[in-house]
Structure formats: structure tokens, C-alpha cells
Specification:
204 residues; mainly alpha; two-stranded antiparallel ribbon; elongated; transmembrane
């Protein structure tokens, strides 16, 4: 009887996926790594020349000069931190939230520049400043599509931060995934296994 109960429990447990290793978890891992590469690349491209980063921010003609200078200097460092956190899977939901807000800011900035007839390079990966109008008109749709897509990946991580190979799981366990929809999904998946176990016990 004991062996039968143990085997039934083992079978039920075997159907439970490892933390984060579900379809949504693997999608999240892909989103994490893509965003990590983008943010680290953007940061590394800007850090050697922070003055150019300031000029790129000023080119959007939204912020006052003093604020644009601060943003220009801080942005590459923020991008680097967000990229490293996503690469490690540490504070994934918060990193995803910051990533979402940054991408939203970029989408708004590029959209208003396009609407106002400004001809600037987005400065997303270094550079920035004035460029030829024809070149700007060609780049704006591409930049917007790219940033909108990356914003969707960021939103995914805010919604479902549970991913494989993350420090969140190792350091904080399930507490790192409060309000994660996967938690509710896992519970519902476990119910049929529990019911089968109870039915087997009754039949014995």
C-alpha cells in the first residue's frame, strides 16, 4: 500500500514542470536575453562619449537644457544596469518595468520628432543629433517599430517574470513571482493529478 501511494505521488509530481520551464517561461527567457543584449549594447555604445549622449537627448527638443544634460549622462548607466539585471534574471519584473518605461519614452520622443518635422538620429545606439531629412524620414518608422516590439517584450516580463536560469528563483524562490499568472496556472494543472491520486486510493 505504501509503495503504491508513493508511486502515485511520484507520478503526480513528475507532471509538474520545473520552475519557469514552461512555454511562457521560455518565451520570457528569450525576451529577457533579447532585451539584455539591446540595453547593454546601447549602453556600451554611449558610455565612451557621454557628450554625444547629451546631444542626442537635446536633439529631441523636449527637455530643458539642464534636464537634458542630466538625462544624457544618466541614461547609459541606467541602460547598463537594466541590461545586466535582465541578463542575470535578477529583479526581472522591476527591470522589465523600467525597460517598458524607457521604451515608451523613446516611442514618444521619436513620434513627436517625426510629427514636428525634426530630422534627427534617435541616438539609441550612440550617435544622435541632426541628420538629413530624407534619412530621418526613412529611419523613423523602423525605429518606432523596433522600440514598440521591444516594449512588448518588456511588458511580457512585467506580466510573467518567471523564467528559467534566473537569479530571482535561486535567491528569492516563489516570493519573486507574486501575482504571476503562472502561479494560478500551475495550481489548476495540479488539481487533476491530485484527483487521480485520491481516486486510486479509494479504489485500493
Amino acid at each position: 500500500m505504501h509503495d503504491a501511494d508513493g508511486s502515485a505521488t511520484t507520478r503526480a509530481t513528475a507532471h509538474q514542470p520545473s520552475p519557469g520551464r514552461t512555454v511562457t517561461g521560455w518565451i520570457g527567457l528569450a525576451a529577457r536575453l533579447i532585451l539584455a543584449v539591446v540595453w547593454i549594447w546601447a549602453s556600451v555604445a554611449k558610455l565612451p562619449n557621454l557628450e554625444a549622449s547629451v546631444l542626442a537627448v537635446r536633439g529631441y527638443q523636449i527637455l530643458p537644457y539642464s534636464v537634458a544634460v542630466v538625462v544624457g549622462y544618466l541614461l547609459p548607466m541606467i541602460e547598463l544596469v537594466v541590461g545586466l539585471l535582465l541578463l542575470l534574471g535578477l529583479f526581472t519584473r522591476w527591470a522589465g518595468l523600467v525597460s517598458t518605461l524607457l521604451m515608451l519614452a523613446f516611442v514618444i520622443g521619436i513620434s513627436q520628432a517625426w510629427a514636428r518635422g525634426l530630422s534627427i538620429d534617435c541616438g539609441c545606439f550612440g550617435g544622435g543629433g541632426q541628420i538629413a531629412l530624407e534619412e530621418a524620414q526613412k529611419k523613423y518608422p523602423v525605429d518606432l517599430a523596433r522600440d514598440a516590439g521591444l516594449m512588448l517584450l518588456s511588458i511580457w516580463l512585467v506580466w510573467r517574470p518567471r523564467t528559467p536560469f534566473s537569479l530571482d528563483q535561486k535567491l528569492f524562490g516563489e516570493a519573486a513571482y507574486a501575482d504571476d499568472p503562472d502561479d494560478h496556472h500551475d495550481v489548476s494543472d495540479d488539481e487533476p493529478a491530485d484527483e487521480r491520486t485520491q481516486e486510486e486510493e479509494k479504489s485500493r
